[in-house]
Design a protein that fits this description.
DNA-binding, homodimer, mainly alpha, Tetracycline Repressor, domain 2, 9 helices, elongated, about 210 residues
Chain lengths: ~210, ~210
DNA sequence: CGTCAGATGTTCACAGTGTCCACAACGGCT
DNA sequence: AGCCGTTGTGGACACTGTGAACATCTGACG
């Protein structure tokens, strides 16, 4: 007499499923598109079910942001391991370059996720899950790369303080301008070239004059 | 016998009033806070009245963004006229510095408006109203300053291409990081110092080595 | 093995938002 | 005076986030 047993009960991984749905929404539509009800709809669950796993709509957005931040870190690491360096100094430079290149690439290839990561940046930055395979957050990857440059004797110690903020500002700003700023209509080639130029400038501003 | 004559009819400047209300909302709450119904409520008019002047909620937001962009330009101009320069070369440098300092100051002092201006950046950038007193948009102010540096012999012509994007990226990125990024909790003093350091780096990266 | 508490999902409900449509008032035109 | 386009109103709808009460499942404990 009882109806068919509900398949939605005890989903088992509702939280992950909702985050996945949210990530997909963010990927295609940015932070604005990650709407709680739509995520539950995609998972096939009632809207309020989400409230058993997230206190808030914002909590869901934050969880999506954490995933996005982790993917950013992964993208940076992937770019770092692209060209195996030879020589300690070259390796240190390549690691910084990888940080910047990965950042820019992620912003171009996944603008929705990129924006989502930074829409909740302050609340996500130090989440233990917002890390890449190496266990480092994007900021830590940058910091590590800069420390490596100091160790290699390429970055004068007196220029080390706040260097991450200067470098980060540059790539972050360019990313924003490329995503929906005045540079949004640039071709991929020009955008790549501009990214390269920008990274050159950053290095020029930081590294010890040869 | 007819009811009291309506004061809301033929408002005369409803569009401006709605934009003003929207600006106030954006100022205190950022782009998210500029909600159409609240703006009409503040003006004392029915919600649908807005649709006689804006096709869309987004159109209202865009109008607010234009005002914000104009205020950004004004802030930059104000900073430029702060310290009267002596000597052509120093004047050229001061103009670039003013561009960057004004940008950073506006982002710190009016984060809501700053974010609103860039929330709709692509649709606002070339609006004729998004200008300061000099009639120049923020980007044009920067371009002009850089051209001035070339004329003054301080910026090597081969480094001129894309220089605005490099410079803009730096200040824009720092602004974002200061507003709701990992630098949001910085004291004003530290933020100012960091801004100064960043502008130093930008200049160092651009200008001809002495 | 039966029962009961807590976890998890559902339904109902409400306020708030953007937006559409039909209507009303005003004011300048002929 | 009379008409018509402009501007504002009222009501309605779909959608969102969110709270409260209810239902169902599951694991722990007797």
């Amino acid at each position: 007499m009882a109806g068919p047993p509900r398949t939605t009960y005890r989903h088992g991984a509702l939280r992950e499923a909702l985050v996945d749905a949210g990530v997909e929404l963010a990927r295609t539509g940015g932070p604005q598109a990650v709407v709680l009800r739509e995520a539950t709809r995609r998972v096939g669950v009632s809207a309020n079910a989400a409230y058993r796993h997230f206190s808030d709509h914002r909590a869901l957005l934050r969880a999506v942001g954490v995933v996005a931040m982790a993917q950013l870190a992964a993208c940076m690491e992937q770019e770092q391991s692209r060209t195996p360096p030879r020589g300690a100094a070259a390796a240190a430079r390549a690691r910084l370059r990888g940080v910047g290149a990965g950042y820019l690439r992620f912003a171009r290839e996944q603008p929705g996720l990129f924006l989502t990561a930074f829409a909740v940046n302050a609340e996500v930055a130090d989440d233990p899950a917002a890390r890449g395979d190496s266990g480092l957050s994007p900021l830590e990857l940058l910091t590590t790369a800069l420390d490596g440059l100091v160790d290699a004797g390429l970055l004068p110690p007196q220029r080390r303080p706040d260097a991450e903020m200067v470098a980060w500002s540059a790539v972050h700003g360019l990313s924003m301008l490329l995503i929906d700023g005045p540079l949004a209509s640039l071709s991929d080639e020009h955008a790549d070239a501009l990214g390269s130029t920008l990274l050159d400038h950053v290095e020029a501003g930081l590294l010890r004059a040869p």
